């Protein structure tokens, strides 16, 4: 089966000042569902296309299944790729679209029939085999494209934003389908998306990229709970993590996060991470960004039950309310910083109300202002 190794891989496009992919170094285990996520232009497609052989590697090595692959032509890599735009042949039937790749490889006719009908069954498109692409919905076309990849029985599946052209409901449905297919096949999947929800729900491991560089590689929950920098923290999670600028101050009774409006005690457990940030340093060296997820900013009714966190209460005015059905996002202003908290759907507050916020200081993240690196993970192996 197929593991994939990237060794310090770079891609320089001619005439571009910066590399599109910068020192991509990663091993994808056999059978893993690896998701690459990041904003548009961060180098996801380029990385995937180098793995597929559709783009030359400028520097570094790629191995598939232990074999040095940089110069192997795409058709000899034994991988199947699924694109956003389906790329089906309009004049061929669904059956022919799925069978074509196998026929070109001279697979025996009965074997082709077997594989196509098996894949069609898996994707629930058996009733569409005689139709042409033009007669199919977007979701059905993408299933055919998936089917065409499945019949190849490749060492690895590469998918580049395959769900982007589908509407929200179909996207969620097809997402679940792909997860199911992966768990049945146990083949290596490398999946590219700009959508953090897709990344979180599909990946066994996620690579977050920015400007051609890997920011963090981790299982979804770890990425969410322990982002290694502010970029990852802001990219993963919806609504986004709240960020407040301030400095670290050390007092006799411990470390505090402070700015002109706030003075918040930091948990004792954080002390060892903050040792270098003592009072003697100039303010500029102690500048940080405090990060707190919306579910860790408790609002009013919720807040009242949270007695143990009483010392971290602040009064704020409700600026906006976003009812989501399952819960409500409350927007407030905390000393000049917009804060979002995830509150109960039925919370009885109105715009303009003064409410109490409880900041779960036991859940805060701290990032160095300048570099964005997490202070709490500093020195930890990522
Ligand atoms: N063929 C190309 N020639 C020059 N620059 C390219 C080419 N393809 C992509 N790029 C650039 O490389 C960077 C990464 O692009 P891409 O891999 O497509 O990002 P993503 O898939 O994450 O949106 C972008 O800055 C993009 O403009
Ligand atoms: Mg892309």
Which descriptors apply to this entry?
binds magnesium ion, alpha+beta, 31% strand, 20 strands, six-stranded mixed sheet, five-stranded antiparallel sheet, 2 domains, 382 residues, Rossmann fold, single chain, binds adenosine-5'-diphosphate, OB fold (Dihydrolipoamide Acetyltransferase, E2P), 9 helices
Instruction: Provide the residue-averaged pLDDT.
Output: 91
CATH fold assignment of the largest domain: Rossmann fold
List bound small molecules: adenosine-5'-diphosphate, magnesium ion
The major β-sheet equals: 6 strands, mixed
- The domain tally reads 2
Q: End-to-end distance, in Å?
A: 27 Å
CATH architecture classification of the largest domain? 3-Layer(aba) Sandwich
**Which percent band covers the strand fraction?**
25-35%
Strand line-up of the largest beta sheet: 6-7-8-3-9-10
Low-confidence stretches: none
Q: What's the level 1 CATH class of the largest domain?
A: Alpha Beta
Kindly provide the radius of gyration, computed on alpha-carbon positions and rounded to a whole number of angstroms.
25 Å
């Amino acid at each position: 089966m197929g593991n994939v190794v990237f060794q310090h891989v770079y891609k320089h496009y001619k005439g571009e000042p910066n590399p599109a992919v910068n020192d991509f170094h990663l091993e994808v285990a056999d059978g893993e569902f690896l998701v690459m996520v990041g904003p548009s232009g961060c180098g996801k497609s380029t990385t995937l296309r180098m793995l597929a052989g559709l783009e030359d590697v400028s520097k570094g090595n790629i191995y598939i299944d232990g074999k040095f692959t940089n110069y192997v032509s795409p058709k000899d890599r034994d991988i199947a790729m699924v694109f956003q735009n389906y790329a089906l042949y309009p004049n061929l039937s669904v059956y022919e679209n799925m069978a074509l790749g196998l026929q070109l490889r001279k697979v025996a006719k009965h074997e082709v029939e077997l594989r196509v009908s098996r894949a069609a069954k898996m994707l629930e498109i058996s009733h569409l085999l005689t139709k042409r692409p033009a007669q199919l919905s977007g979701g059905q076309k993408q299933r055919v494209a998936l089917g065409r990849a499945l019949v190849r029985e490749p060492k690895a599946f590469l998918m580049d934003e395959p769900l982007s052209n589908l509407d929200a409901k179909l996207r969620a449905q097809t997402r679940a389908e792909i997860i199911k297919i992966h768990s049945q096949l146990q083949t290596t999947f490398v999946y590219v998306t700009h959508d953090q929800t897709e990344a979180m729900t599909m990946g066994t491991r996620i690579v977050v990229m920015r400007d051609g560089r890997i920011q963090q590689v981790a299982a979804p929950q770890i990425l969410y709970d322990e982002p290694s920098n502010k970029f990852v923290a802001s990219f993963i999670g919806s609504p986004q993590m709240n960020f407040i600028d301030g400095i670290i101050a050390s007092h006799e009774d411990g470390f505090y996060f402070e700015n002109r409006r706030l003075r918040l005690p930091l948990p004792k457990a954080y002390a060892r991470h903050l040792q270098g940030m003592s009072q003697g340093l100039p303010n500029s060296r102690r500048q940080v960004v405090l990060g707190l997820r919306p579910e860790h900013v408790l609002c009013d009714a919720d807040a009242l039950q949270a007695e143990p966190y009483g010392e971290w209460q602040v009064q704020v005015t409700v600026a906006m309310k976003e009812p989501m059905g399952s819960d409500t996002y409350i927007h407030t202003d905390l000393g000049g910083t917009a804060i979002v908290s995830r509150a109960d759907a039925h919370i009885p507050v109105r715009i303009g109300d003064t409410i109490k916020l409880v900041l779960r200081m036991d859940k805060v993240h701290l990032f160095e202002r300048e570099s964005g690196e997490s202070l709490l993970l500093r020195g930890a192996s990522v």
